[in-house]
Amino acid sequence: MNEAQVVVKRIQQALENEPRINPHRYPVKVHMVQGAVVMEGEVADIAAKKLALEAAGAIEGTRGVVDQLRVVPSERRGDGAISDSLANFLLNSNELRNCTIRVVSNGKLETLREAPPDDGGSIDFEIKDGIIALNGMVISLSHKRIAGVLAWWTPGCRDVVNSLDVVPQEEDTDYEVIDAVRLVLEMDSFVQPEQIDVKCSNYVVTLQGYVRTADERQRAELDTWYVFGVARVINNLELLG
Fold first, then answer.
1. pTM beyond 0.85
2. What is the pLDDT, as a whole number, of residue 4?
3. Could you write out the three-class secondary structure of the chain?
């Protein structure tokens, strides 16, 4: 067994050891290309995707991970329907109201809204096979993160590539992540954030407090995973008695 085969075997074992990934139900193809690990397949959710990538990157001998993992969408939809829903989310978001919104359709850039004088930047999006690509420039990490979460929330979305630039550059901190997670939980009408406490250390977010249902508990966790930069989520939320 050569070095590449050893690395692949170790990664496959790591995936087996992480219950959130469940490679028997959601097979993940792992192979090496010029020293980099390529991961392909469709996984259950954003948590499984991030945990799989983290597991591969932690294996000794891994020199870079190429992410080709996709998430099973909440419903299968065509790119046009996904585009319409995402446009609606972006245009109706209070946090992004000062952003120009543009969509790439049939290779052409179409402006859906021009930013007012107090410019908040521009967000360009394109959908191919359920994969949402975000490009452009925004004025804060918060704007970048909110746009990314709205993309993940879009029915039919299989992956989000968030390439939005933040200008001027902004230092990222655990406090920035906490603020973003709190804002996202407030935006989600299916979550009551009043009794949820958010902590973050080195991009590992811990959720503590109380929720009404198991569905709300899971939704709050997934909302947190969707936030750009979050490396791991520890869900200590308890159900109200």
1. yes
2. 86
3. CCHHHHHHHHHHHHHHCCCCCCCCCCCEEEEEECCEEEEEEEECCHHHHHHHHHHHHCCCCCCCEEEEEEECCCCCCCHHHHHHHHHHHHHCCHHHCCCEEEEEECCEEEEEECCCCCCCEEEEEEEECCEEEEEEEECCHHHHHHHHHHHHHCCCCCEEEECCEECCCCCCCHHHHHHHHHHHHHHCCCCCHHHEEEEEECCEEEEEEEECCHHHHHHHHHHHHHCCCCCEEEEEEEECC
